[in-house]
Batch of 2 targets.
Target 1
Amino acid sequence: MTHALAVGDRASAQALADDALGAPPVRATGLRVDFKGQPGVIAGLDWALAPGQVVGLLGRNGAGKTTLLETLLGLREPQAGEVRLFGQPALLPDDALRARLGYVPQHAALFEDFRAGDLLRYFRSFYPRWNDAKVDGLMSRWDIPRDRRVGQLSQGQQQRLSIVRALAHEPDLLMLDEPVASLDPAGRRDFLRELVDQVLDRGTTVLFSTHILSDLERVAFNIAFLSRGRIALQAPQDVLADEVRLLAGPVGRLQAAVDAHGGQVLSRRDLGEQPRWLVRFAEGNQPTADAALRCEALNLEDLFLELTQ
Ligand SMILES: Nc1ncnc2c1ncn2[C@@H]1O[C@H](COP(=O)(O)OP(=O)(O)OP(=O)(O)O)[C@@H](O)[C@H]1O
């Protein structure tokens, strides 16, 4: 007879296994966040990020991306479940763990009256490590005047400053909430290059939310789709392109194709003129289209629309 493990048991069993293998940067177990009148914004999420992974988090407005990032970082207490960062409870970080974390919130509550340079000096005092050369390089490359008050910087400059602040102490885990929303295309490209460098140089684990799919398409990030409080799908982009197909045709044909090719149905719309299912097949094992069955690969935007409806 098997027994379902309670979340607490599962979390501690997982913690033991993590300790044996080296704890991952992020491990969420049975995570649940409810808001008044809105239960299940995060709905029993089990998720982990591997060291050095760079994950783009996608989801519609209100899907819960900010809530998820805040909860993963221990800034918001979940109604159920647990988050561990490098094996430590996210809600009880010690100074050493704090120094390993970097966060760029969606609306940076930067100190408006501080001059940009003073703000960085202030944050510098909190961290055992601070890369002055990186800060100087980014401040001049990104054109942020050090002597201007933060409140007088443009939105894009404030966002850049927030990114500089988060990169300066060389965190091992970096979470960014729509970090490029106010950046121009050149700034976005430069930011992405910086992220990639950070990962290549230091093996930083990065999780960032974004709505700008074209940026993701340019870099081979791992993509995670948040929908209905869970990660509906996560894979590197090339794997998504190779393995995920939209099938359209009569339900019987769709089921037959899934059965014959061992597909995993990710979403299905059976109503309407032509039912269509989004299905993941092992590489090289996709059904072929015929007169009764349409079978097509999707670009990131179409995949987003199908998965996050
Ligand atoms: N403090 C709060 N109190 C009540 N409801 C909240 C609170 N914060 C978020 N919510 C609700 O939880 C849901 C998820 O919000 P969240 O900001 O996490 O979404 P998001 O995916 O980051 O959205 P966006 O893409 O628009 O930034 C929304 O419906 C929002 O109204």
Target 2
Amino acid sequence: MQGDGGVLFLSGVGEVTVAVAHDGLSFQPLHLDVSSSCWSSITMQPKLQSKLQFSDVYAVEHLDVGPVCGPWNTRTVVQGKRNTEMNRFVVHAITRSRKQPSPWVPCEYMFGHKDLETCKTWAEHISGCINKEQDRPKNLMVFVHPLCGKGRGCKNWEMVAPLFERAKVKTKVIFTERAGHAYATLASLSDKELKKFDGVIAVGGDGLFNEILNGLLSTRHKNSYPPTPEGCRYFGSNYKCQEYTNNGVSNNMATGDDVNVLSGNLNTPDDHEPLLSTAQSTGLDISSSNLSDEPCNGDQVPFVSFPNNWFRLGIIPSGSTDAIVLSTTGERDPVTSALLIILGRRISLDIAQVVRWKSSPTAEVLPTVRYAASFAGYGFYGEVIRESENYRWMGPARYDFSGTMVFLKHRSYEARVAFLEVGNTRSLTTSADNTINGVQPLQYHQSRPHKTICRTNCFICKETSTSEHNSGDEILASSRTSCENQKWVWSEGRFLSVGAAVISCRNERAPDGLVADAHLSDGFLHLLLIRDCPLPFYLWHLTQFTKKGSDPLSFKFVEHHKTPAFTFMSSHDESVWNLDGELFQACEVSVQACRGLVSLFASGPEV
Ligand SMILES: Nc1ncnc2c1ncn2[C@@H]1O[C@H](COP(=O)(O)OP(=O)(O)OP(=O)(O)O)[C@@H](O)[C@H]1O
């Protein structure tokens, strides 16, 4: 290797001059008679490029002496031989698959040289360059759900584990033994232990991810409860306009009432929920909360709090529902997800904080906090999950079966919903203002605004995302929602379902998701109120989700509101909530979007 370049033998291409730039390598065939078709003529592996970005290289391996293929171009034979024995090293990178444009696949660039030292120098130099790439994880905690998606969890982990090994990413692997295992592990893990990891990976479905999310946040997200409307019995319990932040741990935040409400919760165990109540597990102590980004405990170990700039979550999709992966990568592919994790890709993700005030109409007020990454829904959505529990033996098909059963029952539920209408994000349907007094007109279809789909490098999410350059304080500032022009709007009546999508919630059945233009990190929930309507209309609405490019939310009986927060009240306990596919018994809840509360190893949906 001389300076920033040299001549090497590239398997399948022949001799090439290799130039090293600050961001990658480029190769030029030395013998011009080796046509450029060589780059794409290698059929044994995905298409090689003549330029390689370091950001796409995940490992460099030095190999023993062995054969390196001559050019694949049959008309040209450089050095007279097809295979030449020489010293070798391999650069492992990612590329698009040959057959499909979308998933990422690993590819290898095998280089050879007759001189061992030259080979070693090259391999070390390229390794040094990729080690300078910021933001790559070195140590990860991995939870594998062995039973998820018909036992796919273990198989998928076996498939991708060699990629982590090759990239020298250490993994502490925990095979879950029961529901709640991942939650309990993370909720009880000391911050000192957690700080040893750059992130946590779920090899499972949305359910395991939800457990991990709750385990991490239950003790580490110190936040004011969602705002509630005037007239609601919780009004003022924790909310003042200027306090509506993702992290309300501030000295001026806690009113006397706040402390009462929060501390009143501390000693009371949660009822029969698999996850512990936040208050029980956190010992939330507003008065002693420290304002700095990373305060220290007695042993000088910095506390871990969310949002933060370093910790990330990842998912290797293996469940029967993988809506979070599909909405954040555009793919349901374990290898794509593993490569995005290893390469340290990062996006911010909004999280819905759901506070249950009452589990049933007769229960005492006992605020209990849960988090959802994709969806929180009541009525139809809750009943499908509840019903499906009776048919576990069917595997993933139980969702179709119970969906049909619940649909045919066609039940509706009496409820009152109040949502915050903010500034220019007025309701996407026309009826909101009309329903303030409980009037329930059918909506008139209105031409809906142009949809801006969230994609990789989405400018809407980037505007104030928790980028790696932001300090913790900047994150908090960016996540603060303007209180100007906010007003509460009421909607009440009988609903087939009440749902809030945090992200698009794409899945195989709904290629555009529940809300095609939901963003990963814009600080908004998409509240979907499906009013009681004749069964055929409801069927028509549901079938629209299965068609790409359709508009299932344009029906008169559908209200769609983009909002940072809402409160739901029912005087019955006829139905349950579904949080990321997990059941949550509640008849009164408040929900708020926490902008960019967590970061994910992903680069956004490539759709
Ligand atoms: N070892 C285990 N045994 C039983 N349940 C588990 C285990 N590990 C995790 N769980 C729970 O199983 C539920 C579903 O997990 P996940 O979403 O990963 O898989 P899935 O195949 O998509 O499941 P489902 O079809 O129930 O949605 C979660 O609530 C999770 O907490």
